[in-house]
Specification:
Helix content: over 70%
Radius of gyration: 23 Å
Number of domains: 1
Distance between the termini: 84 Å
Number of helices: 24
Number of strands: 2
Strand order of the largest sheet: 1-2
CATH architecture: Up-down Bundle
Largest sheet: 2 strands, antiparallel
Order of helices and strands: HHHHHHHHHHHHHHHHHHHHHHHHEE
Shape: globular
Strand content: under 5%
Structural class: mainly alpha
């Protein structure tokens, strides 16, 4: 690999990314940092959604899945398409609910529809999920740098570029917030599409098609991780997109409901193509006797492309595109954790001083999350397990999200206890049983707990919740009043 071709594309990507972030930055408020409501065109939302799903370490994780489990990666891609189609169908309703409740974030909506403790539980569990996903991006950087070290003459070069990419994460996502996150995703997606196009052309001639056909049957059945895993992917996988804060952010940030629906379906179709491509790369690595599943994609890239300049460009492009997911996860971690830490400012965020305080604290949390995720990455043994475990944490909130739209399914007590019962099941399942199958039992436990609490426990009366949104103050009563002004209590 040509050292300076590799370094050049990484440096160009980092420079362009930060230029996009700082040109016409303007004044950033906490609303812009966290949700940027109604600002972005639908095509930009589509690009950003693809960047969040495809970028980062996807080419390593899905390539590893293709190596270990064959078409399981395609199954996850199909579940992703189904999930984004589901989001597209409900996006107009989601936006209407947000506007009716004067909410600019999903956290505010949970607080109004349920309670503070449910919203804080979502923030803590979701914040942990996005933190581990961020750590996964650092794992990808580490694996990439470790592999690139074998291909360059200057062994320090990949590690210097890894450090530079880490420093870049401390700038544009922390300073520009969601607005610059979405803007930079556009360039990063264009770059990875170009890299995939060149690599795909080369792999067609490199792959031993006869050996790929003769791979074990379990790789083609999609059951290498177990039948329960495959079934759960299609049952629970699409629902994951209803609980992801980054998806809700983009629904709110779009200029129109119709536009965001088109953007989500388009992003799902493009993402499915990427899942299929990297699954095929992993299976080619298996057929060519690549030793390590973690390096399947990288080994195929090296074997398929002989030209040192082209190899340097492609490896550099993928190396730099780790940023396209990392910036979103940094933003999500900071917004979710600022709610439990600065509760008073959150409840009065319509005031200018509260907006300033929330913005300062969010940026501080973002910086700390980058350093913390970098440390966690060095102790992570399996990239796929890390991602599977992270997504499990948020899937636990799926029954609660259904309660946002279905009043009969809305129970504050059930929402709170089902989340923490799901966590209690997840922890031993993930660490002592099966990291890839832990999400199955955890989500089932959360649903059963939610249904049981709704069935056997009456909903307690709660105190009114007063929140200040971006434009006005809204008081949500503890229980609806009757037309005659009486409460729901029975008369003695």
């Amino acid at each position: 690999m040509h050292d300076w071709a590799f370094a050049g594309i990484v440096l160009i990507t980092l420079i362009v990314t930060n230029l996009v972030a700082f040109i016409r930055r303007g004044k950033v408020s906490f609303d812009i940092y966290a949700s940027d409501p109604g600002y972005h065109a639908s095509w930009a939302i589509g690009f950003s959604m693809v960047g969040t799903i495809v970028g980062g370490g996807m080419f390593l994780a899905v390539g590893q899945m293709g190596y270990e489990a064959g078409l399981t990666g395609c199954a996850i891609g199909l579940a992703t398409l189904m999930g984004l189609v589901l989001v597209a169908v409900f996006a107009p309703r989601f936006r209407a609910i947000m506007q009716e409740n004067n909410c600019s974030t999903l956290i505010q909506l949970l607080e109004k529809r349920f309670s503070r403790r449910v919203a804080i539980s979502y923030c803590l569990i979701g914040g942990a999920m996005y933190f581990f996903l961020l750590a996964g991006q650092f794992v990808a950087l580490y694996v990439f740098a470790q592999y690139a070290e074998q291909l360059v003459a200057y062994k320090w070069l990949p590690w210097a570029l890894t450090g530079l990419a880490g420093v870049s994460m401390l700038f544009y996502p922390v300073i520009g917030g969601l607005r610059k996150d979405i803007s930079t995703d556009i360039f990063q997606v264009v770059l990875i599409v170009a890299g995939v196009a060149v690599l795909g052309y080369a792999v067609v001639g490199y792959a031993d098609k006869a050996a790929v056909v003769l791979l074990p049957a379990k790789l083609y059945s999609g059951t290498a991780y177990g039948v329960p895993f495959l079934i759960a992917v299609f049952i629970f996988g699409p629902g994951l997109f209803l609980v992801r804060m980054d998806v809700w952010q983009r629904i709110i940030a779009a200029k129109s409901s119709g536009g965001v629906s088109i953007a989500m379906v388009s992003a799902g179709l493009v993402s499915l193509c990427f899942y299929a491509f990297f699954t095929a790369i992993g299976m080619v690595g298996q057929a060519t006797n690549v030793v390590s599943a973690k390096e399947a994609t990288l080994a195929v890239i090296r074997g398929a492309i002989a030209d040192p300049y082209v190899l340097g460009l492609i490896v550099g492009a993928f190396f730099a595109c780790v940023l396209s997911s990392a910036d979103t996860f940094i933003n999500n971690v900071s917004v979710m954790l600022v709610r439990p830490l600065r509760g008073k400012a959150w409840r009065t965020q319509g005031e200018r001083t509260s907006q300033t305080q929330l913005l300062v604290w969010s940026r501080a949390i973002a910086v700390l999350s980058v350093f913390g995720a970098g440390l966690i990455a060095f102790s992570a043994s399996d990239f796929v397990d890390l991602i599977a475990g992270a997504f499990t944490l948020l899937l636990i909130f799926l029954p609660t999200m259904l309660g946002i739209m279905v009043e009969q399914w809305r129970s504050e007590r059930a929402a709170f206890w089902s989340a923490w019962i799901g966590v209690a099941v997840f922890v031993p399942s993930f660490f002592a049983w099966n990291p890839k199958g832990a999400f199955v039992v955890s989500v089932i436990a959360a649903f059963l707990a939610f249904a049981a609490v709704c069935r056997w426990f009456r909903e307690p009366k709660t105190e009114p919740i007063v929140l200040q949104g971006a434009f006005e103050t809204v008081c949500v009563p503890a229980e609806p009043e009757r037309p005659d002004g009486e409460t729901g209590k029975k008369q003695s």
